[in-house]
Write a structure and sequence with these properties.
The structure is a homodimer of 354-residue chains. Chain A is elongated. The first copy, chain A, is an alpha/beta fold and 354 residues long. Helices cover 41% and strands 15% of the residues of chain A. Chains A and B meet through helix 5, helix 6 and strand 2 of A and helix 5, helix 6 and strand 2 of B. Strand 2 of chain A pairs antiparallel with strand 2 of chain B. The structure holds a DNA duplex (16 and 16 nucleotides).
Chain lengths: 354, 354
DNA sequence: CTGAAAGCGCTAACAG
DNA sequence: CTGTTAGCGCTTTCAG
């Protein structure tokens, strides 16, 4: 007699708790209690428990997590949300470092990680309340009116990473690096090398990014504190126009708001025949492995992305489990990595004033 | 009269389909049909439909995806499984490229991505059948007895990426690069530069990795085809012993089974005072951005990870939706990127025989 | 065109 | 100690 092989290998209907209960001649409550513990008031004797375990094992029973999640209103999953990603590997390594930090605390706590990338605002609205996540780490969260309202309606806790400081009174936890302090390090480094006309370079499209705004502010403060003049590029087509802009303003150094902007600046400068660091010093921000790949290697402000992500994740888990002590926000200090893209300003005059 | 503010901002109980139905004085069936479409036989007039939509909008209704998933036995989520990750950013950029490829096809199909990293075999067993994923991309899947049995019992389709070729007759879809062809490229490159004693370097712990086995095989075939002698390091502590091993065997070139192994070899050679590429040529495998960060920059075989991942994802979605035409497996050809770690063997004698 | 009702698989009161 | 039962929120068959 031929055995139905397909049935043996991939049972069409997964075996349920009820199947096990019937096979073991007990109630589903007993099986649930024995196999999954839980706070049920049901007690089961050790003999029966062992029988149940044996039957479940023999039947190859696996709990259906979706049913359990529905019943318990808990998914043991957190989301990591990027609204604008545009290709994980095309840009710098921010994402990689971040996921590493998140994973490091998530998995050892039995949680799962759902990656939400390239989602637009409407998608976000649907996603956050759909019960599939217990909390979200929202990267680069902007603070526009629309987002604020969205957050207010969100039923799950949110931790903002690399975002604008939350509204006073908001209960969003907020983890970031000290962008202002980082820019102070960058300007201090260049100033000490003799540079006086130092530009800030950013992309027009990203001018409203929280981090970009904060870094620009930090840059301006650092320059003004030293009695210098801020130079800020605003052209939408900075890629081509910036070298000319820098020369027109006698700038001898530039700070990019990210390492990838700084790298592209390096390339434009090279095309324009401007040598780095001999004629122009360039500084970036983030200081991942990516800075080792540029020519020359990029001097950059380092933000401890991995540690920030790990901290944010732990804070989120604390929030989820109700340990809401009210203040989890944290600002991480930046450090500074000197590589090959900055040098002393040799032709430095003692004064740049006219 | 004071308004209960907390209730307005974060309704303790999310509004359900039933709430909407009651508010609109219709059945839940009608609401479900209007709001989510679906194959229900229920028809609703356009007037009523508009009313329902208005009420749902006013009440800020969001579907509970968990309940829907349970009902429909479908999660619109796929998993990406790494059994051994050990820190995303410590190693090469394989993961980043892979996630990029997966995301690129996943999100535009309305699917979600669940990342399962650092999970052990027991965890995997529980995860795959728990209803939270419709399919899995299993990276570096090994072909041991235990895994084969696990796969046989798995209720969801699996696509193996960078894995050993599946058992003949198995219905696991399999996507990989042409490891053998890649090693042929590496050996050909070195042979053409005059190298005759070329070693294969790998880590003892990873000797059973499918890709490692395949690459070793490809290396041996390429060497023997040219009448050369294979040299294979097997020491568990290759990091320190390999430079001596290479010298003892008069090797003038080495191929690492991954770019990170090749990089570490570069460092050991440097410590041993052996210059690359003047005295020793080194080739790696993968050829991501990482190869630009080594000193010198690493010549490497390139596997098109992003494309492979995108293909694997599309194949998985096809399998899930039942378009199981039987053969989705594919082998991607490798290419070769020459960088600074390989050079002509200047002292080449015409024969290395004693 | 519309509503009532039966579950998806699981957990936890509650009653014995 | 053990079983019965009422849902979690949703979809869909079935009867009107």
């Amino acid at each position: 007699m031929a055995v139905d092989k397909s049935k043996l290998e991939r049972p069409s209907r997964p075996v349920t708790l009820k199947d096990v209960a019937e096979a073991a001649n007990v109630s589903t409550a007993a099986v649930s209690r024995v196999l999954h513990g839980g706070g049920s008031s049901v007690r089961v004797s050790e003999v029966r428990a062992e029988q149940i375990r044996a039957v479940a094992e023999r039947m190859n029973y696996r709990v259906n997590a979706v049913a359990r999640n529905l019943r318990m209103s808990k998914s043991h999953t957190i989301g990591v949300l990027f609204e604008n990603l545009k290709g994980l590997s095309d840009g710098p390594l921010y994402i990689t470092y971040l996921l590493d930090g998140v994973s490091s605390v998530l998995f050892k706590n039995g949680y799962r990680l759902s990656v939400l990338a390239e989602v637009d605002h409407d998608n976000v609205i649907g996603s956050l309340g759909d019960g599939q996540m217990d909390g979200v780490i929202w990267c680069k969260l902007a603070r526009d009116e629309e987002t604020i309202n969205l957050i207010r309606k969100t039923p799950i806790p949110i931790v903002a990473l690399n975002a604008a400081a939350p509204e006073p009174g908001s209960d969003v936890v907020y983890v970031n690096c000290d962008n202002e302090g980082g820019m102070e390090l960058a300007v201090a480094h260049l100033w000490d090398l003799g540079h006086r006309n130092i530009a800030f370079v950013h992309e027009w499209e990203e001018r409203n990014t929280p981090d970009c705004i904060a870094r620009l502010g930090g840059y301006e403060a650092a320059i003004k504190k030293r009695g210098g003049t801020p130079f800020v590029t605003e052209s939408q087509w900075f890629l081509d126009s910036v070298p000319a802009y820098l020369q027109a303003n006698n700038c001898t150094a530039a700070v990019g708001w990210t390492e990838s902007v700084a790298d592209r600046l390096l390339q434009r400068l090279s095309e324009s025949g401007i040598e780095v660091p001999a004629q122009m010093s360039v500084v970036g921000f983030d200081s991942t492995l990516y800075c080792e790949t540029t020519t020359p290697r990029l001097t950059a402000v380092r933000q401890p992305i991995r540690e920030m992500a790990a901290f944010a994740t732990q804070a989120l888990l604390d929030l989820i489990s109700g340990r809401d002590s009210g203040q989890f926000s944290k600002i991480f200090p930046c450090t500074f990595d000197v590589r090959g893209s900055t040098a002393i300003y040799l032709n430095a005059e003692e004064s740049n004033e006219p």
